Structures are given as structure tokens and as C-alpha cells.
Amino acid sequence: MSMFGQVYVKNNQYKLKGNFHHLTPNMPIRNADDGWRLMGVTNPRDMTYIHSYGGEAIFFESLSQGKLMATRCDNKKCEYKGSIYQPFRIYCPDCLSRMTVIDMTDVAKKTSKVHTFMVCERSGAFNSLDKPIKFINVEFDGVCTILMSYLAVGEPKIGMKVVPIFQKLNPTYTIQDLAWVPKGTKASELPQGFSF
Amino acid sequence: MIKFSKQQLKVPKLMRPVYLVTAGQSKFDRAMPDKRTEELCIDAFTMAADLLNMSPAELKRYIHTCYYGHFADHFGDQLLGEAVIHDRLGLDPLGNAGIKTGGATGGSTLWEAMKTVASGYSDCVLAMGWERMDEVPTDEGNFLISCAADKDWESPLGHIYTGYYAVMAQKYWQVFGKAEDSFRRTLAEISVKHHNYARFNPFAHGPMKITVEDVLKSPVIADPLRALDACLMSVGAACAIVCDEDTAVRLTKNSKNTPLRLYVAAGSHTLRPADRRDMEIPLLPNETEDQYKNLGKEFPGGERYPGFTGFLGARMAAWYGYRMAGITDPMEDLDVIELHDAFTISDVQTYEDIGLRPYGCGRDFVESGDCYHINPKTKKPGRLPSNLSGGLIGCMHAVGATGIMQTFEIATHLWNRWAEIHGDEKLWKKFNRKKPSDWTDLQVKGAKRALAISHAGVGSHVTATILMHPDHLLIKE
Predict the structure, then answer these.
(1) What's the CATH number for B264-471?
(2) Cα(B271)–Cα(B347) distance, integer angstroms
(3) Which chain A residues are within 8 Å of B167, Cβ to Cβ?
(4) Shortest CA distance to B210 belongs to which of B235, B234, B227?
(5) Quick check: B339 and B391 in contact, CB under 8 A?
(6) Which residue of A29, A88, B345, B471 shows the fewest CB atoms closer than 10 Å?
(7) pLDDT at A2
(8) Which residues in chain B are closer than 8 Å to A94, comparing Cβ atoms?
(9) Is the pLDDT of residue B2 over 80?
(10) What digits encode the pLDDT tens for the residues A134-165?
(11) What is the pLDDT of residue B72?
């Protein structure tokens, strides 16, 4: 019986269960203007990848627990010691020392605002966000970078104060578990599965 | 990177002069079910040989190394596609390598070719680029393109690359465009211009006679960008032959082509715009130390550099390239340019990054009429015509070939062969395209120096390719 591919790790090795690909037959491509002569074939491909989050895993796990983690360079010898990064990055881009993981949920709740935004009417294949997608780029006090994410409620505007919400119910364990709403939004207005 | 070391700001130096002697390209189209990629590459190579009045076999005898620009293996579902093309061109067992830098792949392929000749490793190099974007439907194609963004942090957000540009468009419009409707109309004018120039280019597959209103009424993809603000998705190939001086003289002796001095420089910036950090603006030779001290006051919100309004990668490619080639003012020293107009907004951003206008003032390059072949305001030749091919919006964006197509275009102006090639009735017929009754000769008269900007991602890789007639160099050697 067919089942989705599932993976866990034991002794630092992947353990696989289920089907990681599905076989679909090729079909001929023919020319309707030229006696239906053969032009090519379709090549169906349905395959599941196995992807490691490595040192970023804590960031994605924390989203499902309602926490926004970032990293800070604490290397005393680094010219940019104390810089905080969101997106979370494992190593300092300047001194390449492994950075300290910090919880910046409170900073995000208090200081987040929209740096820029756009409203996306279309998407590529495999998109699972509701359209139109309201992309926002979020800036925080004391953080040297600007996070890309999406606004789940309301209309975006540059400078708008926003707060993070987290998909704690049935999380996807992807960046989609983090979204934002205008400051002052009520809990009852949040999308299903999300909470502050 | 926030600060540069002295070593990082070394001006690139070539060990010997490098020349571009010929180039060629296939027809470009949204889909070409009747041709395999190798057929397109051989079309491009044969054209390059024709322009030298040589047979492909004769030209092949000079080639020592090959670089193949092909960005997206997953589009064609073929790893090592470079090896397939190399074999089909009959160039084995010469050394070859594939080059991949997203939308800048074509420019990067020329960058490698230049360095290989400059170092003395080879006297003659083939730079060939292509892309096959018709083997999946458009939605799936948009998904595959979005895979060039960070797959954990960006791609899952809509799987559409336009969105990553649209946030820049919004910021630029609000800050440097001062949220004016007139700025949005200027963006639309770029699309009108490029689709119109494509009408005179038999290779192009996006020719249109449209108005600003048509652009503003086209479907919204990612507000404020609309369908007609975006580049094409294309199939096609382009190539160039790069050599040392002796080989250049021999290859062009029976041709109208003049060997053109070639300089290529490259820059980069973070793949994720989210990772951009504030820094000082690296200055081009035509800018002054205090030029941007009031930028934030003049344009509130524009104090952060490069923020979401500029491309540091393009600035660095120009920074290295201009110094390498002796360009002190691009508006004065260059005669024709091709820019990477992935979207109308990125065209404007690039005007500033490469110093055609100061930061914040890019729109003036269009509004002044300087960017046109004939300035619509003065009815005189434009000061620095851009994207006369139609660019990515009107001609094509077959990713791995694009930077080479741009270089082919500017070279035809410097060879004074633009009209001969683009007006060729046989070529229009061969491509099954109708030459318009108002076809116009867009040759830039007396063009001696030119530039092409090849650009990837949201500015992750950028190259500046500079061509100069050998009698009009700006650096004494």
C-alpha cells in the first residue's frame, strides 16, 4: 500500500519509511498541425526530498512553540560583536564564529514595523498560502537585518507596527509557521491554527 | 560585508589584452517544440562563424577552451547539460566547464572566457549560453525560478520571484519615487520602450506596440508590478568568441567585424535581501565624497544603503569595471548600453547603481529622454540609448544566454552592423516573423564604447561587460 515518505534520524543516520517516488507513465507529445507526428514525450516526476535544517532546526522548532529565535555574535575579537541577525544565521558573516542563539520574541512584539511590502496576486506552483499574499519585510530595533515574511490580517503599509503570530496548532515546521498582524489585532481575528 | 579591505578593492588587471571578435544567437521564443537545445546552440555558433565569413568547422579549429552558461538544470531535467552541448558541437576533448550564476550566467560565462584568455591559458575561447524554459508550464516554471531564492526562508512564501522584486519596487516608489503616480507611469514607459524596440529585432519574441495605459491596465502580478512590467520567459542560445590579439586579427581578416576590446567585472550581494546590512555607498569615478550625505533628508527612508532600493552587486561590478576600462563618466564615455530589465523597477535601480544618475534620481534617465535611440523630447539622438534589443522585457530572457545576447547586441553597434543583421529580410523569414512596415534602423551612429549589465537573483550576482573599439580605448597601455 502506498504511503507518504516519512523519515526520522537514529544514530545520525536517516531512517526511511514509505514511498519517496510515484511512477507515472510517459505520454507522447504529437503535432496537431502535421499529421500527429511525434515531437517528444512528457516526463512525470513526483519525488520527496529529505532536507536537513542543521543548525537552524531550533529556529523552525521554536516557531511551533510561539518563539522567534535569532542569533548574536558574541566573539570578543569580532569587529561587529553584538550584531543580532534575523534571519537566524548559524555563523557570523564577519568572523565566522558560531553565534549565540537568543530569543527575540519580546523584541519582535514590541518593535516590529514594516520596512516594505507587496501584495502578490499570483504564485508559482506548490504555493500553499492564501492569495493575495501580502509579503512584508520586517525591521526590528537592534537587529541589523530585515526579515521577509507575510501579513496574515489587514492591509500592509510602510512603517506599520506589527506583531508576530505563530502556527502552534498543526505546525508545518517551515517559515510559513511565522506570520504577522497589525499591532492591536484581536486573537479572534487570527487565521486558524495561529496564536500570539 | 560592510567595509572593504585594500586587497578587496584591487582594480582588476588583465595580463594581456582580450578581444571579442564575433557573436551569434538563435531565434528566441517562449517555446520551441521543434528544436532540441543543441540545434539552438549550433544556430548561434553558425551565425558567429558567418559574421567572420568562416565555416563553423574553420572557426572550431581556433577554439581551445569552452565555457557553457546554463542556469537551471531542473528546467531541462538534464544534469551536465553542458557536456551534452559540448559533445554535440564536436568540441570534445577540449576542456570545458559549466557556469551558473542565475540571471547573470551569460555575463559570468564571458567573465570566465576573458580571464582564460587574459591569463594566457587559451588564445581563443567559446562562451556559449542557453536556457530551455519551455519544458514545464508557466506556473511550474515560476516555482522552479523561485528555487533560486533561499529554499527555507523565501521560496515557501508564494514560490514567485516577482514578489521578491515587488517589495523593492514598493520601497523605491515610496522613497525615491515619493509615491507619485508619475513615477509609476515612468516605469510603464520603460515597458513601452522595450516592447517597441523589440519590434525591430527579428530575434525578439515580445514585440508590442503598446501605451503606458496598456501597461498600467495589465494584470497585477505583485503590486505594484504588473504583467507588462516583467521580463519574458524564453528559449534560445547565444555565443561569443573571445581571443588574444593575434588570434583576433587572424579571425577578423575577412570580416566586417573589428576585434573589440573586452573587459568584464563582477560583483555580488546577499542572495536573501533580508541579509542586507547598512553600509557606506561605494563611490563610482563620477561621484563625489559628499554626494550622498543628505540622501536620507532629501528622500526620507532612503538613508539605508543599499536597503531595498539599490543593488550593491551592480554597484560593485561597475566599480571594478569602470576603473578597469578607464571609464570616468558612463554618460560621457559610453555610446550604447544593454541593462538587465528583469522588471521595469530593476532597470531604474540599475541606472543609479552604475552611475547614469545619482541614487534617488534614476527616473530622470527615462524622463529626460536620454535612454532612447531618438530622444522623443528633442528629436535628436538619445545621449545613451539603452536596451535597443528590447531587453529582457521585449527581446528575451533565456537565462543562460541573456548576458551574451546583450553583448551580441552592443557589439553589432560597435561593428556598425546593427541594421545589416536586424534588417535582414532572410532572417525575418527564417524565423517566421513579419518585419514591420515601419521597421526602423536603430544603429547608434559612431558607437565606439558600450556596456552590458548581466544580473542574477535579487542582485546576488552582477557582471559589467564593457566593449571598446580598439582605436577608442580610455586607458593607455
Answers:
(1) 3.40.47.10
(2) 19
(3) 116-118, 135, 137, 148
(4) B227
(5) yes
(6) B471
(7) 60
(8) 2
(9) no
(10) 999 999 999 999 999 999 999 999 999 999 99
(11) 87
> Do residue B140 and residue A125 have CB atoms under 8 angstroms apart?
yes
The domains of chain B are located at 19-136+234-252, 264-471
Least CB–CB distance from B154: residue in A118, A133, A148:
A148
Same domain for A43 and A62, yes or no, is no
**Looking at the whole model, is its pTM more than 0.90?**
yes
A186: domain CATH number is 2.40.50.140
- Give the range of the structural domain holding residue A104, as residue numbers without chain letter: 54-195
Give the three cell numbers for residue B311. Answer: 543593488
Nearest-CA distance B451 → chain A (Å): 32
What percent of chain A clears pLDDT 90, i.e. is strictly above it?
A: 86
Cell 543543441 sits at which residue? B38
* A73 domain residue, yes or no: yes
Interatomic CA distance for residues A84 and A183, integer angstroms:
23
Q: What is the pLDDT of residue B164?
A: 83
Same domain for A85 and A23, yes or no, is no
Q: Inter-chain contact B160–A124, Cβ cutoff 8 Å?
A: yes
Cβ <8 Å between A122 and B274? no
Check: CATH 3.30.56.10 for B19-136+234-252? no
Domain tally for chain A? Answer: 2
Tens-digit pLDDT profile for residues A10-66: 998 999 999 888 888 999 999 999 999 999 999 998 889 999 999 999 999 999 999
Give strand ranges (E) for chain A: 6-10, 13-17, 21-22, 28-31, 37-41, 46-47, 69-72, 84-85, 100-103, 113-120, 133-139, 147-150, 162-167, 178-182, 194-195
Domain identity same for A19 and A62: no
* Chain B from 265 to 294: CB within 8 A of any A CB: 272-278
Mean pLDDT value of segment B226-250: 97
A99 and A119 fall within a common domain: yes
The alpha-carbon gap from B157 to the nearest alpha carbon of chain A, in Å, equals 7
How close does chain B come to A124, measured CA to CA in Å? 5
Contacts of A86 in chain B (CB under 8 A): 274
Written as nine digits, the cell of A24 is 507515472
